[in-house]
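Appendix C: a fully annotated inverse folding record. The material below is reproduced so that readers can follow the format used throughout the book. The structure is listed first as tokens, followed by the designed sequence.
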């Protein structure tokens, strides 16, 4: 059993380290992959510190205890920030780095309590006994233990918060995509939905770990197995990062506004609607699979704010749906003359980005 436990503990930190170095070397200036490399390096340190603790290398663990607290609280935010780096530019990403602040604060406070209040003998005594169920009589030891309970609560709150965020993130992103692009398959981050299933699962395991952690030392193998599974989750997303590419859409919060002279901008709703519908009926821009809102604005002489508002308010749909309605109408007319045409050809003729997007659009009610 001791041998098996040692294998699990060692693999838990060795694999994230190897993946971290490999991704950093392979990244070739890919910003998201560099963020994933750093997330994996953080995971490496988390599980290395766990190795010191569970192998009873207490004197070594004491040295890294404060940083271990911080790194554990960076585990879930670092995964979240990786996804942010995939769908945003560097400026937007930097604004989101405040998610690392709780880990920094708790790491500093942990260092203050653990190293400032306790002497070396008390630190060893605390680390050897806080999981045994013993009741500390020293005020200083009680304070350090209470802080640990607050730290555990923070981890639980993180799991809940980031699980919800990882569900909301792709939904909000896709809604923005639909306001700008007529085809969004090439920009999709649907993989985040499956990613989130694993994220919630490992979060639940993390909470379970801290629920069972106070059990007696004889349960070390049980707890080490929990840690190994959490580490495995980091391996999976690390391997996933090798193939994940940054969507071409970039940061949708920074889509360039169309620059036109004020006298040339069509702002009247009735006039703008007439120009828009005339443009779609005559020029058939919807047959271009790369059509986007910015291109339409330039061609009809308005800006994104006016046109997006018109499509949303007057027609009650987003830009993506507005364009696909024309595509569906065009394909239905085409099928009247050429029945039996393959879906692949129809998707190309109609300006759809893929057969799957063609099928989705055709299945929607008029």
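Designed amino acids, in order:
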């Amino acid at each position: 059993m001791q041998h098996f436990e040692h294998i699990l503990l060692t693999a838990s930190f060795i694999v994230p380290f190897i993946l971290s170095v490999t991704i950093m070397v392979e990244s070739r200036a890919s910003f998201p992959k560099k963020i994933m490399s750093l997330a994996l390096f953080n995971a490496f340190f988390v599980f290395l510190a766990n190795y010191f603790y569970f192998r009873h290398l207490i004197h070594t663990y004491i040295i890294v205890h404060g940083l271990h607290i911080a790194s554990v609280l960076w585990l879930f935010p670092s995964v979240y920030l990786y996804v942010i780096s995939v769908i945003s530019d560097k400026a937007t990403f930097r604004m989101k780095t405040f998610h690392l602040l709780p880990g920094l604060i708790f790491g500093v406070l942990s260092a203050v309590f653990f190293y400032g209040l306790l002497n070396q003998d008390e630190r060893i005594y605390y680390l050897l006994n806080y999981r045994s169920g013993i009741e500390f009589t020293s005020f200083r030891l009680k304070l350090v233990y209470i802080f640990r309970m607050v730290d555990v609560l923070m981890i639980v709150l993180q799991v809940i918060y980031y699980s919800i965020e990882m569900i909301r993130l792709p939904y909000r992103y896709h809604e923005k995509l639909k306001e700008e692009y007529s085809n969004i398959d090439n920009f999709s981050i649907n993989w985040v939905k499956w990613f989130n299933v694993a994220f919630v699962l490992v979060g639940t395991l993390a909470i379970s770990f801290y629920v069972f952690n106070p059990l007696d030392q004889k349960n070390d193998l049980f707890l080490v197995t929990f840690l190994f599974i959490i580490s495995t989750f980091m391996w999976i997303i690390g391997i996933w990062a090798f193939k994940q590419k940054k969507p071409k859409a970039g940061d949708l919060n920074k889509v360039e506004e169309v620059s036109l002279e004020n006298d040339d901008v069509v702002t009247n709703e009735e006039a703008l609607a007439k120009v828009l519908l005339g443009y779609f009926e005559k020029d058939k821009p919807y047959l271009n699979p790369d059509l986007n809102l910015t291109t339409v604005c330039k061609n009809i002489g308005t800006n994104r704010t006016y046109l997006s508002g018109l499509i949303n308010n007057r027609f009650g749909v987003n830009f993506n749906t507005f364009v696909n309605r024309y595509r569906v109408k065009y394909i239905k007319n085409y099928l009247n003359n050429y029945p039996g045409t393959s879906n692949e050809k129809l998707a190309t003729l109609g300006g759809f980005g893929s057969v799957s997007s063609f099928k989705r659009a055709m299945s929607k009610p008029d």
